Amino acid sequence: xxxxxxxxxxxxxxxxxxxxxxxSFAAAKITIQYGPPLILLGSRFIIAGLMMIGYAVVTKTxxxxxxxxxxxxxxxxLLNQVGYQGIAWMGMASGAVSSGLVAVIISMNPILIALxxxxxxxxxxxxxxxxxxxxxxxxxxxxxxxxxxxxxxxxFGTSMLSIALLSMVLGSLYxxxxxxxxxxxxxxxxxxxxxxxxxxxYSAFTEDLSTIIxxxxxxxxxxxxxxxxxxxxxxxxxxxxxxxxASDASALHFLMPPFGLMYGWVLLxxxxxxxxxxGIIPIGLGIWLATxxxxxxxxx
Length: 300
Fold this sequence. Notes:
Elements: H1 7-31, H2 37-58, H3 66-93, H4 99-106, H5 109-121, H6 127-149, H7 155-177, H8 184-206, H9 216-242, H10 246-250, H11 256-268, H12 274-291
Helix pairs in contact: 1-4, 1-9, 1-11, 2-8, 2-9, 3-7, 3-8, 4-7, 4-11, 5-7, 6-12
């Protein structure tokens, strides 16, 4: 499968990614109401990973990755899931940060990706893209200031989310730099599986598993974050990342704040301040500048 050349088909793909990915933060905060965060997160990754690998087996695209391949998948899982999602889920479970703030912090991913991609991959940092990224930073700072000073978000929790962001950036760069010779479904499923096992083992020693509230609400919320947010959102992210340059793929994260804030407001009744709305304006303009190529030749 390749990136659609039709602009409407590509827009639909991007929109699906944004809706699924940004919904995962609110969905996660709903899910962790029914049990400790790490055991639920680890279970999510194990189930999703087995489903992805099972898909590869059924479609006869599965190939053994070998010891070196599993080592690389484990590193990818540690960076992109354990470090990023693990810290984010723990922050939301503690009540220190809202799902909307998580979406805003993670939306800074393209700034760091674009900066590192220039020396690592030789990607061109044009004036237009630089201006777009700068506007994105301004918008995120406005929202962040509003969240801390107006709605009372926790500063320490925000700092922990910055570590989660850095872990995700490193994971994305590692994935982009790693020239895979295995199907994407195996790479996604494998790194989800390894990260899930790590989280479940760690959870067994640090969390009280007897506090899990079994029932239909837990089953439904887990079903969504496994199929929609993980297989759908994570799968689309790595698909876009593997079929385009790193800066363009990561620039899509600038769409996360408005959708993330919307999901938090609608599903969790999280407050939305005027500063949040003001910050969305430069973020939206930054998206357009950072991702619109006009008639320039695309880079693959």
